[in-house]
Design brief:
about 350 residues, alpha/beta, Rossmann fold, 8-stranded mixed sheet, about 15% strand
């Protein structure tokens, strides 16, 4: 029991809930001001706390406000880039799942595709900020996706949505000029976890799902860039946690898995990218901060070791002075070089191991 509790807490104190503000989206006003605003607007009974319903409403309102503020306007896009926003790639229970597409106005088609998956502890964040947009001027299409957050549905809904988005990209390759056999996945934090899971779970039936209308198309990707994502929820991979007093990581994992780890061991394994590694996985770039106390570097090391053992091409970069969220020029340069190497060529030897259609 103690070991399981320590594991739950060890798994990502951060991806984690900071009231109303995700780590990726910190912005003025400050956190305390945001908290007070949320209480003023959504604390219906005046007890100084938000009910679960009030928290959901506050999160929704925050995302709408933040999205309106942070969505890049056409004039702020890199020169020669065209944006197509809020395209429905699937619908679940009457709710649309949306993505944005960024295309070069003048570049030879078909275009290799980078699919960006946002972070936010699986419970916050959205598609509006896409670090892959600058790559468009280098001859890529960038696709930034939303997926169901844990307030809406627990795992495996998140990976089902990501796979549906990949299938949608393939199904619409001719329409948008995508190269259906050259699709890369890139994510950070919770998005890094989902990108890695896309890479290792090709052919895992329980993770495919039936979201969307393109089930005849493959959900496999040809390259994965994982920035500071968790790779394992398996208890055997963790012995103790020096930050055991921090509770928010455990709460986020409980929300993801649909309950306590001790009651959802099978789901915890299913959600672990490291558990699905096989020799036909695509090349990986894993970038992690050595000073990351939120998703510890051990996650990167575990995944890299498993991929290497399986004979999969993997590059592990531990940045010595970086913490959580390695969105710095050095890391983006690594991503650019990685995608150029594996997506710019028409095919990558051994990467496409199933029909792309």
């Amino acid at each position: 029991m103690i070991r399981l509790r320590a594991l739950a807490i060890a798994l990502l104190p951060a991806m984690l809930w900071i009231p109303l503000v995700s780590a990726q989206e910190a912005a003025p006003p400050g956190r305390e001001a945001l908290r007070q605003r949320a209480l003023k607007e959504f604390d219906k009974d005046g007890d100084g706390r938000l009910s679960p319903k009030g928290r959901r409403e506050a999160l929704r309102a925050y995302r709408e406000r933040q999205g309106a503020r942070s969505r890049p306007a056409e004039e702020t896009l890199p020169k020669g880039t065209k944006a197509l926003r809020n395209i429905e790639y699937a619908r679940v229970d009457g709710k649309p799942l949306l993505l944005d597409i960024y295309l070069p106005k003048d570049a030879p088609r078909p275009l290799p595709v980078i699919v960006w998956i946002h972070g936010g502890g699986w419970q916050a964040g959205d598609k509006n900020r896409c670090p892959a947009v600058p790559f468009v001027s280098q001859g890529y299409a960038a696709v930034s996706i939303n997926y169901r957050l844990t307030d809406e549905a627990p795992f495996p809904a998140q990976i089902h949505d990501c796979k549906a988005a990949i299938r949608w990209v393939r199904a619409h390759a001719k329409e948008y000029g995508f190269a259906a056999d050259r699709i890369g996945a890139w994510g950070a934090s919770a998005g890094g976890h989902l990108a890695a899971l896309l890479g290792t779970s090709g052919g895992v039936k329980d993770l495919e799902g039936n979201v969307g209308d393109n089930e005849t198309y493959s959900s496999r990707v040809q390259a994965v860039c994982d920035f500071c994502g968790p790779s394992s929820f398996r208890e055997e991979d963790f012995e103790s946690d020096p930050w055991a007093e921090q509770q928010e990581g455990a709460k986020a994992v409980v929300k993801l898995l649909g309950g306590p780890l001790r009651e959802h061991r099978e789901m915890a394994v299913l959600a672990s990218p490291v558990a699905h590694v096989s020799r036909d996985d695509p090349p990986f770039l894993i970038v992690h901060g050595a000073k990351d106390t939120l998703v510890r570097p051990k996650h990167a090391e575990l995944l890299a070791a498993a991929l290497q053992k399986a004979g999969v091409e993997v590059t592990l970069k531990i940045l010595p002075d970086a913490g959580h969220g390695v969105g710095r020029p050095e890391a983006h340069k690594l991503a650019a070089e990685f995608f150029d190497r594996h997506l710019k060529a028409p095919t990558h030897g051994g990467a496409v191991t199933r029909p792309a259609r």
